[in-house]
């Protein structure tokens, strides 16, 4: 009996040893990536600011014609403010197409009344699949053509495909109806098209609009949101958009362009089949599909990231809404990664496969399972008294502080490079919430993403509704 107990204890101890080695390597890998991405991202931001200060950047008075597609479903609260921000952009040649995706509120009527649109008889040529239109309205606001298309409900991908079909220009931008653009965002996101002839897509920077004020497309007041949930998302967004995406951009390795603000070359998007109607992660799926299409067909291409093209978007203000959003995001990530699994360890895709795809696979898709398994292992180790609790607390404390420092570095880098002013209260709030975000919120979101995988079949295709607030925009 004693021998059996000793053998069982030895097996558990051996198992925990190998698990410990794995997690040390896992955390070293993630910490190295985080340090590298934040360091590279921050240095590039400061270099761009210095170049702008000394006027060493090239000012090009060249405008690529662009269609802005705004999919809207029950967005009557925010759609007018969002559209008004789009009509005051510092750009010469663009049109705006609003696609009302079968809203059950007065989204369409709000747009019609606000911009004095009139019904027209305009057939839409279907180059990519979408549900049929119910009606088309048209008008001009100053020099900007504005089109509203009301269609049967088909989801965001379907609405975006309708916008592609109705667009008249060679490039299109998708932007959420709860978002607003800064006055120079269109010029900034189009700049890579002028600098490089082989650009097929460009991602912009998405920042949290909760707590800010905008007038004529310019930021007039910046502060951290008053509520804790959106305030923590500010730190999270800055760490992601200002560091990781800048690092991936150095080797043409971005696999995702946020659905809130991204530009695409229309003919290639159509050649790829447009947005996938069978996923809730349409933004990442299209970008990944562009990588696959261009690499498979031997096309020279670039997918760029424009960190100075800023879109202000609403963040969920309650934990319940945040959980809905992240469950949907992780479901979309799972769908994209599994659909394009042939990219994994594939020499044809180079660093996109061995760095980008591997990162998203291990540290994004599988990370909730890995991290929750790690916590369960710690509980087993404590039960068998195979762990040095003070050392474990110190180890996780160091890891948490490191993550918080990286988040704060990314956050304050953006504040400094955009010449934003923070109150002492906001500085203190950022310092306190940084630790809370990388520990408590990370655990909550890891659990959420784990349940997204476990409940994939039940929740597949479900978007969930998130409560919107009116955006503080003045014109």
Short overview:
The protein is α/β, with parallel strands linked by helices and 475 residues long. The chain has helices at residues 2-53, 79-86, 107-115, 156-166, 185-195, 228-249, 266-271, 282-296, 319-339, 350-365, 367-383, 389-417, 424-454, 456-459; strands spanning 66-72, 94-101, 118-120, 133-141, 144-151, 171-175, 179-181, 199-208, 213-215, 218-221, 261-265, 302-313, 473-474.
Summarize the topology.
Blueprint: H1 2-53, E1 66-72, H2 79-86, E2 94-101, H3 107-115, E3 118-120, E4 133-141, E5 144-151, H4 156-166, E6 171-175, E7 179-181, H5 185-195, E8 199-208, E9 213-215, E10 218-221, H6 228-249, E11 261-265, H7 266-271, H8 282-296, E12 302-313, H9 319-339, H10 350-365, H11 367-383, H12 389-417, H13 424-454, H14 456-459, E13 473-474
Parallel strand pairs: 1-2, 1-6, 2-5, 8-12, 9-13
Antiparallel strand pairs: 3-4, 4-5, 6-11, 7-12, 8-11, 9-10
Helix pairs in contact: 1-6, 1-12, 6-12, 6-13, 8-9, 9-10, 9-13, 11-13, 12-13
């Amino acid at each position: 009996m004693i021998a059996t107990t000793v053998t069982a204890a030895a097996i558990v101890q051996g198992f925990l040893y190998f698990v410990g080695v794995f997690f040390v390597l896992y955390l070293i890998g993630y910490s190295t990536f985080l340090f590298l991405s934040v360091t590279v991202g921050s240095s590039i931001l400061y270099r761009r600011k210095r170049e702008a200060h000394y006027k060493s950047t090239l000012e090009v008075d060249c405008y690529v014609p662009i269609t802005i597609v705004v999919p809207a479903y029950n967005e009557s609260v925010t759609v007018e403010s969002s559209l008004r921000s789009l009509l005051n952009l510092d750009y010469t040649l663009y049109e705006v197409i609003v696609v009302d995706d079968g809203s059950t509120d007065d989204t369409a009527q709000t747009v019609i009344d606000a911009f004095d649109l009139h019904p027209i008889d305009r057939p839409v040529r279907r180059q990519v699949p979408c549900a049929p239109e119910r009606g088309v309205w048209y008008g001009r606001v100053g020099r900007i053509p504005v089109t509203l298309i009301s269609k049967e409900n088909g989801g965001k991908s379907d609405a975006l495909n309708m916008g592609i079909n109705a667009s008249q220009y060679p490039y299109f931008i998708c932007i959420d109806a709860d978002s607003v653009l800064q006055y120079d965002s269109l010029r900034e996101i189009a700049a890579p098209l002028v600098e490089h002839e082989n650009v097929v897509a460009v991602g912009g920077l998405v920042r949290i609009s909760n707590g800010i004020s905008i007038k004529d497309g310019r930021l007039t007041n910046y502060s951290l949101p008053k509520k804790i949930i959106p305030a923590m998302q500010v730190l999270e967004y800055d760490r992601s958009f200002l560091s990781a995406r800048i690092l991936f951009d150095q080797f043409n390795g971005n696999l995702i362009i946020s659905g809130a603000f991204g530009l695409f070359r229309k003919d290639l998007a159509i050649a790829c089949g447009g947005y996938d109607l069978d996923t809730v992660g349409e933004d990442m799926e299209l970008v990944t599909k562009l990588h696959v299409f261009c690499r498979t067909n031997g096309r020279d291409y670039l997918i760029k990231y424009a960190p100075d093209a800023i879109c202000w978007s609403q963040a969920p203000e309650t934990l319940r809404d945040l959980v809905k959003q992240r469950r949907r995001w992780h479901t979309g990530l799972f769908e994209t990664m599994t659909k394009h699994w042939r990219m994994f360890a594939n020499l044809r895709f180079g660093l996109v496969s061995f760095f980008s795809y591997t990162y998203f696979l291990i540290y994004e898709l599988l990370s909730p399972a890995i991290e929750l398994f790690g916590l369960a292992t710690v509980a087993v180790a404590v039960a068998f008294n195979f762990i040095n609790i003070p050392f474990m607390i110190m180890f996780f404390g160091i890891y948490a502080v490191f993550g918080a420092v990286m988040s704060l570095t990314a956050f304050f880098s953006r504040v400094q490079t955009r010449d934003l002013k923070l109150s002492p209260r906001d500085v203190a709030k950022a310092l306190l919430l940084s630790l809370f975000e990388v520990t408590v919120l990370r655990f909550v979101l890891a659990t959420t993403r784990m349940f997204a995988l476990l409940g994939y079949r039940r929740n597949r295709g479900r978007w969930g509704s998130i409560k919107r607030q009116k955006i503080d925009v003045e014109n």
